[in-house]
């Protein structure tokens, strides 16, 4: 250990020059990082510049003292003053660094009051140092221009001890607010100078421990600040990635929810379309709403039914009773049509219109299914009248033949059928008898083998003249 101290003492000037170069480089490097706060960058830059000047003053003093310096009256006094002065400004720079650390890292609203006390103490120390240049308070120079210690030499070392102890007390008081990566280097940077100043006093000043340790602090703080900056950037990147992942999950959840809602909406829309239009028409409309939809069916069967004496009947009913009665009746018809595969076309007032055999295949059983459906409607009316306040009767007319079907309208679509087949079916209903199924000969030809009780009639049909009809 003794040999090491002797080696360091013999090579102090070389070591100082080496550290001077490092601090100069670090001063330039401090200007490069963009992620350091402005106050943190300023504090480290001041520390590095101060270290360069501190080392330069000490090195010049040692070099000049090792040669004939009897005529260096001003030079020696200047570098000796700067030696002490930069020692105090190093502490001031460290104090500035701690202020930023307490507000940024410890998240204090304001830095501790003890740091202000340190600033005042350093101002007093510098004032006494200036006074010492004109007195022998701290040190003086003899006739040979050699340095000697003054009566209050040790007072000059009390100020650094006081300020460093105050800094250490602030760190200890708020120790839990700092992360481990901050606690260790800050504690070392504060405690080490105290130890080295004590070692310098004990060694009689042969080893400039205070200078070397305080300069070492500026290097350690630079490295620590860069590491802390990198950790902060890493944390920010991780937080950004985590936020992006959370955002992606939320977005996926939102998309899934919207997709599900859209799917439900589409299903409702398709269900509504299927309720209004035949399946093939609904499918074509869903694929292309602007498409003109029209079909010609060679062998379709059309049914019309309405309530007998509806106007007279409803004259004795309230509006609510009328609507309730119609809704109940039409609902029964709709349910039967859905069960038996009959296509409801529309209702107009008390009239109900339906069709079957809406296919390109001319050889279909639409006529049979429609007659079967009509017989079911009569059963529904009988069931309806068991509980109805106003019993009703209906007429039913059916015709089979070629017709045209399609979708018309722009804002409110409607599926409708046209042709002579439709008109004749309507005439069969209007000329029919209550609670009977009135069918044309074309329908009769397709169902005669299935129904044996058929009554032949001859009716005058508007636009057609005498036509043979049948009651099923």
**Beginning-to-end CA distance, first to last residue:** 128 Å
Q: How would you name the CATH homologous superfamily of the largest domain? A: Rhodopsin 7-helix transmembrane proteins
- Overall geometry comes to rod-shaped
Multimeric state: single chain
- The fold-level CATH name of the largest domain is Rhopdopsin 7-helix transmembrane proteins
* Main β sheet profile: 8 strands, mixed
Q: Helix content range of the residues, please? A: 55-70%
User: Which class of secondary structure composition applies to the elements?
Assistant: alpha+beta
Number of helices: 14
Uncertain parts:
none
CATH C-level of the largest domain: Mainly Alpha
Number of domains: 2
Please state roughly what percent of the residues sit in beta strands, choosing from under 5%, 5-15%, 15-25%, 25-35%, 35-45% or over 45%: 5-15%
Q: Quote the average pLDDT.
A: 82
Quantity of strands, as a count: 10
CA radius of gyration is 53 Å
Name the helix and strand elements from N-terminus to C-terminus, one letter apiece.
HHHHHEEHHHHEHHEEHEEHEHEE
CATH architecture of the largest domain: Up-down Bundle
